[in-house]
Amino acid sequence: MRIHVVSDVHGRADALARAADGADALVCLGDLLLFVDYADHSQGIFPELFGAARATELVGLRTAGRFDEARAMSGRLWAELGGDPGEHIEAAVRRQYEQIFAAMPAPAYLTYGNVDLPRLWEDYVRPGHRVLDGAVVEIGGLTFGFVGGGLRTRYRTPNELDDEEFARKVEAVGAVDVLCCHIPPAVPELLYDVVARRFERGSEATLEAIRRTQPRFALFGHVHQPLVRRTRIGRTECVNVGHFRGRGTPFALEW
């Protein structure tokens, strides 16, 4: 069996359409949407609505850690745009999801990222797509457990969960051969982004589950440019499968 794994697609429908070439199935660990591209400020929902110059201003404030100012600026722009901000965002999100799910290969096993809107997925998944969150599936004789979403942060992305809710999903998965999460376990070298120069949040519950159950693999994304992409916890190989928007290539798992 050969499985291709992607995470942090962030709008890369072109590369996603080819992501399962040569594989028996695709696993997608979420973050399908692109709100703003920190490398190209003309790409994403925010510049689509407000222009690249405003996106550059937003990125600058966020990069400097000035989140209150970034939210205030966004508030002014929404007020100028008029109408219900939620309606504008949902329309833009739906346009992206339509493109992404049309390109998504099948069969594919998917879970949510922290920037995704889970309530909309059911409108776009196609035959051969299976969405799992806090659930287990067998693929080629191995058990794969899926835990989607992220934890609460100052970024306030749409699909952030309380620690207790996230831990309940990890517990529901239990012992599996391959543990698939959007966010990494709480291991510092897996959490530090060397380009953004900050630590992202990882899961203590996932780390404890790995130590206790020792799956063959723990696969995740979320941190785009990690200090370390792979490490071992006991017999478990922990792997950041890569920033798919930037790399355009999947991680391959064979057995």
Any idea what the shape is?
globular
Find the CATH topology. Purple Acid Phosphatase, chain A, domain 2
Q: Low-confidence segments, ≥5 residues, pLDDT <50?
A: none
Task: Provide the CATH top-level class.
Answer: Alpha Beta
Write the CATH architecture name.
4-Layer Sandwich
- Average residue pLDDT: 97
Approximately what portion of the residues adopt beta-strand conformation?
15-25%
Q: How many domains?
A: 1
Cα radius of gyration in angstroms: 18 Å
The separation of the N and C termini measures 6 Å
β-strand number: 15
Please name the fourth-level CATH homologous superfamily.
Metallo-dependent phosphatases
The percent of residues in helical segments reads 25-40%
Supply the number of helical segments. 10
Largest sheet composition: 6 strands, mixed
- Lateral arrangement of strands in the main beta sheet: 5-6-9-12-14-13
Order of helices and strands: EHEHHHHEHEEEEEHEHEEHEEEHE
Write structural notes for this entry.
This protein is of the alpha/beta class. The chain has a single domain, classed as 4-Layer Sandwich (Purple Acid Phosphatase, chain A, domain 2), CATH 3.60.21.10. Helix content is 35%, strand content 22%. The protein contains ten helices and 15 strands. The strands form four sheets. Strands 5-6-9-12-14-13 form a six-stranded mixed sheet, with helices on one face. A hairpin with a 2-residue loop joins β13 (230-233) and β14 (236-240). The longest helix is centred in the middle third of the chain and has 19 residues, at 85-103. It is globular. It comes from Microbispora oryzae. This is Metallophosphoesterase family protein. Residues 1-226 form the Calcineurin-like phosphoesterase domain. One of its GO terms (molecular function) is hydrolase activity. Pfam families: Metallophos.
